[in-house]
Amino acid sequence: MAKTQSYNADSITVLEGLEPVRTRPGMYIGGVGSKGLNHLVYEILDNSVDEHLAGYCTEIRVTLEKDGSCTVQDNGRGLPVDMHQKGVSAERVIMTTLHAGGKFDNQAYKTSGGLHGVGSSVVNALSSQMTVEVARDGKIYRDSYSRGIPTTELINGLLPVVGKTKQTGTRINFTPDDTIFEKTVFKSEWIKSRLHETAYLNPELTIYFRDLREFSAPKVHQELLVAGDDGQISFGLDALSVAASDEAFEQQKGSATDSAAELSSDGAGETIVYHEPDGLRAYITALNKGQETVTPLIYFKDRSGDTEVECCFQYVDAFEENIHGFCNNIFTQEGGTHITGFKARYTQLINSYAKQLGILKDKDANFTGADTRNGMTCVIAIKYRDPIFEGQTKTKLASAEASVDVAAVTGEKLEHYFDRNVETIKAIIGCAEKSAKIRKAEEKARTNMLSKSKFSFDSNGKLKVCTSKDPEKCEIFIVEGDSAGGSAGTGRNREFQAILPIRGKILNVEKASIDKVLANAEIRTMINSFGCGFSEGYGNDFDITKLRYHKIILMTDADVDGSHIDTLLLTFFYRFMPELIYNGHVYVSMPPLYLVTPKARNAKPQYMYNDRELQKYQQNHEPSTYELKRFKGLGEMDPPDLWATTLDPERRVLKRVEIEDARLASEVTEMLMGSDVAPRRDFIYAHAHEAEIDT
Questions:
Q1: What predicted TM-score, i.e. pTM, was given to this entire model?
Q2: Most CB atoms within 10 A, among 188, 387, 520, 547?
Q3: 389: which strand partners?
Q4: Which one of the listed residues 419, 561, 627, 638 is annotated catalytic?
């Protein structure tokens, strides 16, 4: 009998302190890619916003420093620094202990986004260095850490005092740990989008953003200083970071002109001030910029129980809905109960008014929820005392009472509004009528398409199916052309890998009508092959539980044409099957560009995936010692090579497609794939430094 490995008490590992965070970072920040990296900034930002919600913070500064670190600074009360019952400063407890904070007893914070008490400590654990400065009680205290371990010696359990100040607040500077994260370069566009969102949701808050990194284009946006109620210029938060005494603070404060010069004195980077006194109204106006509006802005705000509900929406001449939900300033990317409550009550209202006005007869079927919301741009923001989120990254609200409260406020406020604005409700019902007609025409087109295909797994005769019927194990490769499809079909594992060749570049769905999209042979084939239908705005028949392949892998040539095909495919997925991306089912393969075959005996061939790898190899090897082959396309690769580099799950490299910011993703997709050339050109110029050029 084979010897069994022992399993006893010694086999049980207990992770102490912040070790769990470093061991399983994805559990706390969603991953170690760019999305998780930026999430570090959001965790610290959310704590400062919570200070604003509590009534103590009016300004926040977020700075991407030259050295790659990030600084978040506020003028709130400052973290508590007095002695905690654990025998050390309360600040040290907050920064080194999971689930430690002031948001559990509903005393310090009545509503908060950071409810789990893990935000600051998680960022600390995942940073190679962190410095915390606290200004309160006329003093400046400082603490420092390395990968979550304190490096500042306490004095009788308390933080050392490094200066004096008349200000209050907290300043946290941290550098992401490059042993944890795949990349440590913050995505400024994502951060700016989050900051602007936060400003819209908090009309009395001012947020300053600076990007001091060398590749950031020098720019100054809006006014750098904001006048206060007393007419005086507000100096803001810089005092905390540099003032070691009251005298230093007064010297730095200076005049308004000097302060403005200080903010952009180095002439580098980018400076933006986000201040939106019109709140959600300004947010909807920005979202609808450039579109033809059908209704005026409709705004309401009220409370139901302990829940504060704020909502603003407007209809535009478009066949889609655009709804954004927030709970305690946290963007709920996947929606949740607050969105469900609004949608359900709103649909009832529109159908009720349609019948009262005689637009819908008794024999007529009600409008669907999608009918009533097509053309709507809406933001719903609630303040909720004890929200329940699904996951630490808070992408979906699960609190059942929120649905009831939002529905109650929506019904009461909109009935009051529509009773006094009959022309507006008629315009909304007109949008619903138009939507219903288009929906019925699309259903007919979709029925015709599906009846022709009869749900065949091989509707175009090219799909090479796999034998397994387990979606979790199955993967489908979308390849470019019959040649690559032939190599992939021969080299694959037929048990779980399916191959779908497509011909050239598919239709750009961003510029096409729904009937043209469904008439496209390549798109029809993909819809039939995946088996899950397509999404809500275009027919309500998407069902991700019917997805036949849990990995959809784009496998195109490693050249400009291949990238263009990937872009067109991703645009189709994002507009018609976004749930595939949100649920992590879409990947992009990374085929090699070169094959290097050393001439030395017994030396193994090496694949190079980009020019940088090749150049590094060439620096250490004479040209006469190896043979170089550049793959012009996947069709040129022999099946064994294709298996070894691109198909084999044990050796291949895949990039999973993720969406960090749904609103920003939609805007960028429309800009890059739409008809307006100027914004696309500006975007390319602004991001040229990020391009990887194939030489």
A1: 0.71
A2: 387
A3: 397
A4: 561
